[in-house]
Amino acid sequence: MTQNILVTGGAGFIGSHTCKALAARGYTPIALDNLSNGHEWAVKWGPLIKGDISDRALLDRIFKEYNPAGVIHFAAFIEVGISVRNPGSFYRNNTCGTLTVLEAMRDHGCERFVFSSTAAVYGMPHEIPLTETHPQWPINPYGWSKFMVERMLEDFSSAHGLRFCALRYFNAAGADPECEIGEAHDPESHLIPLVLRAARHPEKPITVFGTDYDTPDGTCIRDYIHVNDLADAHIRALDYLAGNDSVAINLGTGTGNSVQEIIEAAREVTGAAIEPNLGIRRAGDPPRLVADRALAREKLGWEPHYTGIIETIRHAWQWMNRA
Ligand SMILES: NC(=O)c1ccc[n+]([C@@H]2O[C@H](COP(=O)([O-])OP(=O)(O)OC[C@H]3O[C@@H](n4cnc5c(N)ncnc54)[C@H](O)[C@@H]3O)[C@@H](O)[C@H]2O)c1
């Protein structure tokens, strides 16, 4: 008999790719999503329950009906800028919403929890690459809303025997190589889809925020990880928790690409000129964010399959140009 896995946010970007990967490995993903930012068309590998993670009565019904062997928890608001303008909505959705899920798990005896954390829990990096022991001091409410969940997870683990894997992702990118699903955020703030959009619409150029950083070409460096590699890591984390204790793990490729390199790679993939506007730095953007991924290898046996940015961008471009 296949095991059910509750996937909150399963209609979103990373959640839908993880549902596909779960189904490929013999699990049945049960997607719970309020469609605030997700898409019904992205749920193809198991049932979609339209509803909110903060609806405790709904969670009770789901746990009774599906008896999930674990929960992979993606549901959250993700836009850092909005979190600065409206922090309450982030603490309510990301932190309080997760608390409701954890309490339901506690009461229904569900013990395995894989959490979408983020590199934003570290705040300004003191050293690169970032290891999991780097001090955590987020610099925006989004990061704090996730940091607080990590704190709750420790306490639920001590008090109730919850086993969790907090996966601190760097920059998710790419799309399903088979082009069944892909990134469709609204608003979109991620660099690669914005650059690709500019390739299609030269009249709407992107702005590069800062060209005078202490990096080889002066633009910020980030660690872009293919969404399918993220999906793979989630299933490994779920399996890991069947016999191991809780852990927080970085998910990144361990190599960085500058904004300038992303634009050049997108030119190569699309054949478009892509002429960005050059702007000034944004407050709070560190020059470099790159993961140390040794712990992911050690604990999960995980290595990124997609290590070249060209292929990741090609998958995103293929998705953007789907028929
Ligand atoms: N995309 C990235 O680069 C990145 C990086 C680090 C961490 N993360 C984290 O990964 C997770 C998934 O990110 P994503 O890019 O797939 O975002 P996404 O917006 O595509 O997916 C989130 C999904 O959660 C749903 N959702 C939000 N609040 C809900 C609620 N209260 N009840 C039910 N469903 C709800 C949305 O409708 C959406 O489908 C998020 O938790 C995000 O913070 C993402």
Describe the fold and architecture.
With 323 residues, the protein is of the alpha/beta class. It has a domain at 3-172 and 226-251: NAD(P)-binding Rossmann-like Domain (Rossmann fold, 3-Layer(aba) Sandwich). It is 39% helix and 17% strand. The chain is built from ten helices and 14 strands. The chain has a seven-stranded parallel beta sheet with strand order 3-2-1-4-5-6-11, sandwiched between helices. Strands 12-9-14 form a three-stranded mixed beta sheet. Nicotinamide-adenine-dinucleotide binds at residues 8-9, 11-15, 32-38, 52-54, 74-76, 78, 93, 97, 116, 118, 169, 171-172, 185. Nicotinamide-adenine-dinucleotide (NAD) binds next to helix 1, strand 2, helix 4, strand 5 and strand 7.
The helical percent reads 25-40%
Total strands: the figure is 14
At the fold tier of CATH, the topology name of the domain at 3-172 and 226-251 is Rossmann fold
- The CATH H-level homologous superfamily of the domain at 3-172 and 226-251: NAD(P)-binding Rossmann-like Domain
- The level 1 CATH classification of the domain at 3-172 and 226-251 is Alpha Beta
Mean pLDDT value: 97
The CATH architecture of the domain at 3-172 and 226-251 comes to 3-Layer(aba) Sandwich
Helical run tally? 10
Distance between the termini: 37 Å
**pLDDT below 50 for ≥5 consecutive residues: which ranges?**
none
What is the string of SSEs from the N terminus onward? Answer: EHEEHEHHEHEEHEEEHEEHEEHH
Strand order in the sheet with the most strands: 3-2-1-4-5-6-11
Which structural category do the helix and sheet elements fall into?
Answer: alpha/beta
